[in-house]
Amino acid sequence: MLSKITINNVASFKRSTTLETDKKVNLLYGLNGVGKSTLSSFLYNPKSSRFSYCTMEGLNNDDTILVYNQDFIRDHFYEPEGIGGIFTLSKENKEINEIINKTNKEINDLIANKKDQIEKKKELEASHKKRKSDYVDKIWNIKINYSRDEESLNFCLDGYKKNKSSLFEKLLSTEYSADKLDYTIDDLKKEAKFLIGDLKEKNTIQNMKIDFTSIENSKLLSKVILGNTDSSISDLIDMLGNSDWVNEGIKYIQVDGDKAKCPFCQKETITKDFLKSITDYFDENYKNDKEMLSEIKNDYYKKSEILFEYIKEIKKNEYLSDNRQKIEKIELELINLIDENKKILTQKEKFPSNIVELKSINQYEYEINEIVLDINNKINDYNNKIKDINGTKEKIKDKFWELMRGEYSSAIDSYLFEKKNSNNEIEKIEKEISELDMTIGKKKEIVSDNMKHTVNIDNAVESIKKNLVDIGITDFTIEKYSEEKALYRLKRGNENLESSSSNIFQTLSEGEKMVISFLYFIELCKGEKNNREISNNKIVVIDDPISSLSHIYVFNIGRLIHNEFLRTETYNQIFILTHSLYFFYELTQMNKDRRKESQKLFRICKNDTGSFFVEMKYEEIQNDYQAYWSIVNDKNQPPALIANCMRNILEYFFNFVEKQDFNNIFQKPELHNVKFQSFNRYMNRESHSKGQNIFDIKEFDYESFREAFKLVFEITGYKEHYKKMSKKK
């Protein structure tokens, strides 16, 4: 039995919509264009690629869906040779019939056993699925913990962030060895964080190449720089032993007359000749040495600035990491050393005759270059990684999942143990189901072999011809076209078979074609599609069998459906689709309790978002009460339809709206007039849905029926309601 039908992404069904039922009879009402044909086409050919997003649930292997719709008509009636052969069970040999009945009973018992096994399997699968869901939820913590934007390992979850099951299966498929896990998640984060952002190759740092050695080893620093020893005053300066003191004092001597004040004793003892002698002492060699000392000092200052800028750049480098404290210590020591050397150079410049020595920075240069080497190694490692970014990420991913597999090893091992036990149980059941299928198949072969001798096509054709007459179609019939091929054709009136057109079926009206095709479908449902196809469980789907019919046939097609499908236990389930509210109402079960037990009503709707199914209450049919009035108000409608609609209106209005006893209304004396007898007889029938109801009303007089109909409303006090609904002032 079909329990759930899902239609999605086809025709007007733009989004997924579901029809769920547990009832044998399912009636679907919908206007033209809302999707009825799409639904029946899916049930007719569910394997079509256009229905790849549609599903149905509840079917067993033994269920057969028989669908009447436009696809059925096209496949069976529009072939060049005319109507296809009809195979049906009919007159059967008693012995063969007993074999078939006995075997079918055995098949049904086997099918029941198979259903029990399938249920046991479903229960086991459901239990395992529930336990698996618990494990899946637990493993999902990996995504929760590592998918945050700030996490550098976010990319390891690519492809597993939206689906719990895929993440779980990824972890299941990951192999790991606890002995080989010599890294941590923090190690991976450090390794991966450099792969985030704008991935460009980074430049390495040049080694420190600031030459302080030439300054530190300069001979001028150890040279006693003196003036001209040939000067007349050289002996005096040597005796004083401080040429630097004298040289410093010259700056303050200024002879304007014969004599000038001495900068040291402040007495006028300095003559021009004496000043010249002193000046001659400090000759060009002395001045050159002094200038070179100044250059050395300036060079040392500049190189010091360059050195500290170099150290500053090193400190900015992101790969300095653990060496930061070391470089800061070097920087501090260099500041002190260089400041001391600067003081020494300043003193040497001021007192060139002094011998001085600078402290070397060679050891610091070596240590700085060691740090630079470590930084450059890390930069080169990074550059190599981004050259093969995908390969680098894949290696990190592999390590990440190995760590996760290790972290959740206890949960995974428990799951695998439970899964193994569950699979063993399921395999046992599947083996038993397979054996049952083989036995059922053999039993069906027995039925099929016997059925070859029980198919009686002529009886099926006779049934169709009889039903045509019952419906009121007498202007054509069906005749044998080919004895050996078991082909049949339609014959109109007294037409001569030999002279008639072989394509005469195409001359029929759409309504007549629909009647013939539906009668053919009924015979097909009684028997089988062919003599090899066996089915114990039949699901019948009927899509709008009255869409092209005159109203004169609507009632009788409804009665035919009642008799052939709704009032029989032959079929497991029935689905009927129609655009006609009148026809829909004709098929509903009037008794509330029986309707609740066996029928389910649906409406197919369509809006801007597409078509969808909605469950429908019986009372909602009554909301279309006006549809019956529109038929009653049109005297050109068939008598049967007008009379039936009158009764529907009265029954609904008094029984459902006014809560009055419908039958008591016709006890009013005003309605006992002779001309109203026919009206009273048809209105007072036990049910308007009986098979013997008004199809051929020979006594029908529209005006007298209309007058009686109006009188009912007037004598019960609803004159204004009648005026409103009949559109008469």
From TrEMBL:
Protein name (database record): AAA family ATPase
Keyword field: Coiled coil
Record lineage: Bacteria, Bacillati, Bacillota, Erysipelotrichia, Erysipelotrichales
Matching InterPro entries: CR006_AAA, P-loop_NTPase
Span of domain Protein CR006 P-loop: 10-714
Coiled coil regions in record: 93-127, 320-347, 379-439
UniProt entry tagged with the keyword Coiled coil: yes
Pfam family of the protein (one): AAA_13
Top-rank taxon: Bacteria
